[in-house]
């Protein structure tokens, strides 16, 4: 009798490697330039019309990280308006402050719900990112539940971006 050994594939959390265009892309025609600028790997040099939102998210997250308190921001709007890009830019700016030692260190975890097949997998991904543990959803929830309410001066704050979280909403 042979035992069948099954190896569970570990869950991956985003950000995943993205496709990038080569810098030598020939942009001689307006079509080529538009195609380059609209490619999913292209990030704009600035976020026009998002200054107020950027400022609100920035001040909210920097204060929460500096004070070590739990906080939540819900950012909603029409697809393609730069919500995710704005939050990523905020975390980039905050990470720059960390390198300058003007802000304490923090963990950034991005979970794209479109890549999660079952809502409870989000707990597993979060637990893996924060604690490094590969566990089932109920174990992950048990490990994560005391985190925000248990004071610990040595704990590194964690910023979690749950992208496309509205995909979790169903009739059932």
Automatic annotation (TrEMBL):
Provide one Gene Ontology biological process annotation: DNA replication initiation
SUPFAM superfamilies attached to this UniProt entry: P-loop containing nucleoside triphosphate hydrolases
DNA-binding as a keyword?
Answer: yes
Compartment(s) of residence: Nucleus
Q: Does the keyword Heme apply?
A: no
Record-level Gene Ontology MF annotations? ATP binding; ATP hydrolysis activity; DNA replication origin binding
Please give the chief subcellular localization of this protein. nucleus
Extract the InterPro entries matched here. Answer: ATPase_AAA_core, ORC1/CDC6, P-loop_NTPase
> Which residue windows are transmembrane per the record?
none
Question: GO cellular component annotations, sorted alphabetically?
Answer: nuclear origin of replication recognition complex
Which Pfam family, an example, fits this chain?
AAA
Q: Which UniProt keywords apply?
A: ATP-binding, DNA replication, DNA-binding, Nucleotide-binding, Nucleus
What highest taxon heads this organism's lineage?
Eukaryota
- Identify the residues that the record assigns to the ATPase AAA-type core domain, covering every copy: 76-171
- Subunit composition? ORC is composed of six subunits.
Q: What does this protein do?
A: Component of the origin recognition complex (ORC) that binds origins of replication. DNA-binding is ATP-dependent, however specific DNA sequences that define origins of replication have not been identified so far. ORC is required to assemble the pre-replication complex necessary to initiate DNA replication.
Family classification: Belongs to the ORC1 family.
What PANTHER family does its record include?
CELL DIVISION CONTROL PROTEIN 6-RELATED, ORIGIN RECOGNITION COMPLEX SUBUNIT 1
- State the protein's name: Origin recognition complex subunit 1
Organism, as annotated: Choiromyces venosus 120613-1
